């Protein structure tokens, strides 16, 4: 199973929650790509992409020069094209089932259309059997597809304990079961019109939580709201 960090140009908070995820999910050896302005997010984290893709309309000349000085390939595409920069970066990977894709900077308050487009990319990857996580550094969306599960363990670092856990489905998810949450679920179906699994949270004494689904698609929203931001990087 290979792991990939793909940096996109949406909002990004270089938070302690993000640092926790990098460590807890063992992402130190992940392959790194960036789409245009997403390269700024990677550099802020002290990470060097293997390649940067895009038309470079959202990356400053100074940062482009930094990439050149560090001998990072910048693959330039025309601004008028049928693919988004993020889509180009995603297509650069030869995905295999059980690979893990972190779309960092995938969420955006200013461009909800871009955010929805990134959710569509997540759906495409999930259909290939790829495990997908979208994040802005304080909200983490784990896309579960088919028979799958996810677990988050903060037993070694309490900073990893989330404030809110919400479960939503873009269409339907069957036989959803959760543990470690204040309001556990047992074999329920969640449809696209259901909101009963919003705003849950970990049990007071829990050191982890676990969600599994038998079929369909389920988005597990893991939110950190308790002042964990260290550096805020808005859309350029």
UniProtKB/TrEMBL annotation:
Keyword Transferase belongs to the record: yes
Organism in which the protein naturally occurs: Mageeibacillus indolicus
Enzyme class: transferase
One Gene Ontology molecular-function label: ATP binding
Domain Thiamin pyrophosphokinase catalytic: 28-133
Signal peptide coordinates: none
Name the UniProt record assigns to this protein: Thiamine diphosphokinase
One GO term (biological process): thiamine metabolic process
